[in-house]
Amino acid sequence: MTASPRSKGFLAGVASPLLLGSIVIGLLLFAWLPPVAWHSLEPPAPPTGAFLALWTLIPPRDSLRHFPWPQPTKLFAERYYLTSAPALALLAGAVSAPRSSRLAPRPPGGFLGSYLCPPPTGGSMKGFSFRGTVDWKGGIRTLREQIGSAPTPVLAVPGFNEAATVAAVTDPRLTEVLFFRPIFPIF
Amino acid sequence: MPGHLIPLPNAMNAETELYLENIVLAANSA
Question: What pTM does this model have?
């Protein structure tokens, strides 16, 4: 994980070994599977190219929220692309499949569609959160009321998996992410 | 980190215990 990913980190995430491996596996699957297997899927119909492209591109599109320009808080990890890896494998296989296949990929449509859809892991929309029902803001608000303006030291434990070591929580680069302000406005 | 925040790891192990001990020692000597 990096606190402030730049374009280099984003490209590394897009072209990570995980996704490149998915492409290879997808190509191998379509090369080895007999074409008749796809035509016999009745129902359900095989996913369309637009759907696969949408599935592939939504995580990268959502990760743009963690770039420096949308907001002061940055968080980027290659594992965000895990959810899109199967779609990329299927899409790669569909592109390489013969034209007679029922899979007709339309990447431009899916690409545009993915940017029209709301991000699946928003979590910051007013009145709606994907982060569960824990009232972090309420807890922090109560804590602030208790502390007031006194210079009382406050022990804070972030919930991120990356905050398991002393080195992580004391690393200035990660501090702004692990204790980021929307959840811990006390800082 | 500014102000009065003392960040703590969310995993308890020997390293964390030592870190906490140092915090307590610093607080007691202040």
Answer: 0.38
Q: Among all chains, which residue has been given the structure tokens 């499949």?
A: A97
Task: Going residue by residue through chain B, which has 30 residues, state the pLDDT in tens, using 9 for 90 and above.
Answer: 344 678 888 888 899 999 989 988 888 887
Q: Quick check: A163 and B9 CB within 8 A?
A: yes
Q: Dihedral, CA atoms, B13, A170, A73, B2, nearest 10 degrees?
A: 130
Show the DSSP H helices in A97-178 as ranges: 107-116, 136-147, 166-169, 172-178
Measured between CB atoms, which of B10, B23, B27 is closest to A163?
B10
Greater model confidence, B27 or A95? B27
Residues 6+ apart with CB under 8 A from A138: none
